[in-house]
Please model this.
Amino acid sequence: MKIDLQNRLKSTIHFHEKDKFLSHLKTTFFVRYKYSGTLSKDEIKIWKLSHWFGSFYPVIYGRVNEVDGKLKLTLKTKLNSFGVLLCVLIMGVWTYSSIAGILIQETNEWTFLWKRLIVCFVLISIPLICFKLAYRYEKKHALSELQELFKK
Model:
């Protein structure tokens, strides 16, 4: 039974690569919509480029355990390293431009400063919320797609 699951996973992974920054860079720039990853005796790491969110796709990793004669697959996710770098760069530019354009002015009187602080905070939190919601959606979609693959 465990061998059947490993064979299914081996046939699913089209690009055998380790979970490294350059692997995710290749996945993004060569637009690989098929599964990439590694498979060892008890561990899996697998990912696939997202059609909707591009580089912000999750890496699914987990362990295969045998409990009471049944296979138990424990899966977790994380954002890929290239997606993390893009997120940090986008948020850095966004935060700098918000602070430089809105918060820092010639007159920093408290009556106007607190209003600018609130506007700046709202503007900075909008893309953070968007990144979080997009990642949550993509994580849910990737896990359900992988579960469908294992049910076959």
Notes: The mean pLDDT is 85. The beta strands are 15-16, 36-39, 43-47, 58-67, 70-79.
